[in-house]
Structures are given as C-alpha cells and as structure tokens.
Amino acid sequence: xxxxxxxxxxxxxxxxxxxxxxxxxxxxxxxxxxxxxxxxxxxxxxxxxxxxxxxxxxxxxxxxxxxxxxxxxxxxxxxxxxxxxxxxxxxxxxxxxxxxxxxxxxxxxxxxxxxxxxxxxxxxxxxxxxxxxxxxxxxxxxxxxxxxxxxxxxxxxxxxxxxxxxxxxxxxxxxxxxxxxxxxxxxxxxxxxxxxxxxxxxxxxxxxxxxxxxxxxxxxxxxxxxxxxxxxxxxxxxxxxxxxxxxxxxxxxxxxxxxxxxxxxxxxxxxxxxxxxxxxxxxxxxxxxxxxxxxxxxxxxxxxxxxxxxxxxxxxxxxxxxxxxxxxxxxxxxxxxxxxxxxxxxxxxxxxxxxxxxxxxxxxxxxxxxxxxxxxxxxxxxxxxxxxxxxxxxxxxxxxxxxxxxxxxxxxxxxxxxxxxxxxxxxxxxxxxxxxxxxxx
Length: 441
Ligand code: GDP
Ligand code: MG
Fold this sequence. Notes:
Layout: H1 2-13, H2 20-36, H3 41-55, H4 66-82, E1 98-103, H5 110-123, E2 129-133, H6 141-152, E3 155-156, H7 165-178, E4 183-187, H8 196-209, E5 213-219, H9 224-236, E6 241-245, H10 254-263, E7 267-271, E8 279-281, H11 284-292, H12 295-321, H13 327-349, H14 354-365, H15 367-378, H16 382-386, H17 393-402, H18 407-432, H19 435-440
Parallel strand pairs: 1-4, 1-5, 2-3, 2-4, 5-6, 6-7
Antiparallel strand pairs: 7-8
GO biological process, one term: SRP-dependent cotranslational protein targeting to membrane
GO cellular component, one term: signal recognition particle
Keywords: Cytoplasm, GTP-binding, Hydrolase, Nucleotide-binding, Ribonucleoprotein, RNA-binding, Signal recognition particle
C-alpha cells in the first residue's frame, strides 16, 4: 500500500496545484490500495467518497505540495473512522462480579487474550478476576487456560469433566459471587468457521451470564474474513467491542477499518504477541499510520500547518495591537474558518456527529457563504481592501457585480467587518496592558 500511494502522491507532487480531477485520480488509487490492505469493498468505497468531498476545495498549506496535503487528509479521515466514542481500552467492570464474555472463531486468540486481559485487569486496575474456560470441544483447551492462569497468578474455575458450557457459565457466576471476585471472564469455544451450533451455544451462555462486555477476538491478519465474523457475531450475540490479535505480524491492519465501519463497535485492544503482556490499548493513530504507511509526510504537513498558524496569529496580534483590522485581515479569518469547515466534513463521517455537522451548516457557517464573502473581498481593489471607508455606493455596486452578488450581501460583509474591527480594537487596547503579549507566547 505504502509503495503504491507513494507513487500516486509523487506524481501529484510534481504538479503545481491540486485540481478536483487530481483528487479523484489519487483517490481512485487510494481505493485500490485500501482493497489491497484487506479493507472490504463497500467500506473502501464509502471512505474514498467521504474523503473526496472533504479534500476538494480545501486550501493547500503553504510550503506543502498538494500531494502531501492529500496524504494528510486521507490520514486524518482514517483516524476519524477508526476512533470510537469513549476512552479506548475502557471496560465496564463495575458492579461486581462483572461478567466478560469472550467470543470468536477458533484460533483467533480468545484464550490467550482472556489471560492477557485478566492480567491487565489485575495489575492495572486492581481487580480480582476469575477465569473460566467453556471450551468443551477442543481437548486440553481448559487446561490451557488453567496453565496461563497459574503463570499470571489469576484464579481459574476448577475443571469438572462432562459439564456443558451453560452449566460452566452458571458455576462461574456462582463462584464469582461467593468468592468476592470483581470480574469473571468466560472463554468460549470457537469453530473454524461460523456455524449455527456455535452461535446457539454462545447465545445460551450470553443469556445465562448477561455479560457487561462481550468482546469479539479476531485475528487481525484474516482481513476480509474478519469482517464477516464481526458482522455475524454482532448480529447474533451483540458485541460491545473488538480485540484485534496478531497485530505484531506484518498485516496492514485493513481489517480494523472495515470492522469499525461495519459494526460501529470500538476496537478496544490489540494483541501484539504471544506473551502475556503483549496486549495494548487500541490507538487509531498508529493503525492509521500503518494502513497508510506515510508517517513522515503526515508529520511534515502537521509541522508546516502549525508553523503557518503561529505565523498568522502573530501577524494578526501585531496588527490588532496597532488597532488595525482591514478587509485583508477579514479575508484571512474567513479562510481559516473554511479550513475549519473541513472539520464539518470530518464530523459528518464520525458516527453520531452528523447532526452537529448539520447544525454548523444551519448556522450559516458553511463553506459556500464563506467563499462568497471571500469572493466579495477579492473583488475589491488593493486600496479598498486596506481602507474599507472608501466603499461608497458606486464602488459597492461594482464590487457586488464583480463577485456575482448583491449590494445587500456586501453590506452584510461590511457590517461584519465593522463589528470585528471594533472588537479587535478593544482587544488591542487590552493588549497594551500586557495581556496580548501574554497571549502571544
Ligand atoms: P483461541 O482458539 O481463540 O482460544 O486461540 P488461542 O488463544 O489458543 O491462540 C491461538 C494461537 O495464537 C496461540 O498460539 C497464541 O499464542 C497465538 N496468539 C494469540 N494472540 C496472539 C497475538 O496477538 N500475536 C501472536 N503473534 N500470536 C498470538
Ligand atoms: Mg481457546
């Protein structure tokens, strides 16, 4: 993926400006690249669409090539999709004893992850944990959990031969209550693929335990298959989160993106090895970086954006201190707002944030209005911009016509300028008292 994207963006880099066609061409390649990274087709398609809307019309940061800018936009959009609500890695384990149900296919890493998580809850959160293996199918599966329990110093439910999974779950619940445990973890059996028997068994266990957390453990290397697994388990059992294992391997983590998009459930942890401490809180930034593989460019763009913002802020502060605020200053402010309008697009992509994006739009802060206001300013002469008092009736008509708008629109803009100018003057005066200097640091 990384190589492929490098190729695309190199090509863009050599061009001066990023046209809509350039964005489209680049994103078509991004789509192919995402598919190669095991992102599912509909997810890749939706993602690219959202990024396209977002990228088109966005200003290119000074000293950054358009291609680099696109990398950053794709990267930020990836993070937004990967991010869930709430704190990453947080588990609902209040009201003891809190049951945690571990589900997934065989070999995905359920038993290993059960033990890793038990260790984490014990050591990091100071919880008393009881683990129980419900895997009556695979020989020695129960012993496997008992051995891990021994190794990490976490109790396991004594093994009773011949018990079915539901009976074991009931016994675990009773034992956890009597023994004063904070959490009990149910490690279920898996199949090589999803089947009816597996689902019925897990459903029965779920109904007995009413888990606070139902974690789906999936092999991060299985890519496309992992998505079907997630879809099925979420539909039948209802999962509260995902643990992606084998992220220490060289897979590209594309499964993370599709699972997040398909189930909407948070990815809570990633498994990074066979050892008991190889479990980490999921970090969207890291996975996004891995899917895209262009961390250097992203860092470069971030740095440039920071520098430019700091420079602009400083220039603005200096002018304010002198009580200056002309149409050029207003234009700069409007342009910054458009950059934030990019956030509106971002919000639209995040689950549950679509409504907020609408509100921003309704408040008249959408890009269209801002761009019209900028067009009006651009239609002014240099002199007029620096000195808005010059704007009398005939000039107003010319400017409005030049921007394809009405004089009333220009009047609104001028009113806004006056209000902001007054505000700036006030702030500028305060600045002489030292506050501005403070703010500039
Ligand atoms: P289960 O059938 O779902 O219970 O899977 P297991 O927990 O028994 O794991 C199957 C194999 O995967 C074992 O050899 C584990 O050591 C290995 N495994 C589990 N998680 C990880 C991981 O994050 N990274 C690596 N490299 N191996 C893992
Ligand atoms: Mg197992």
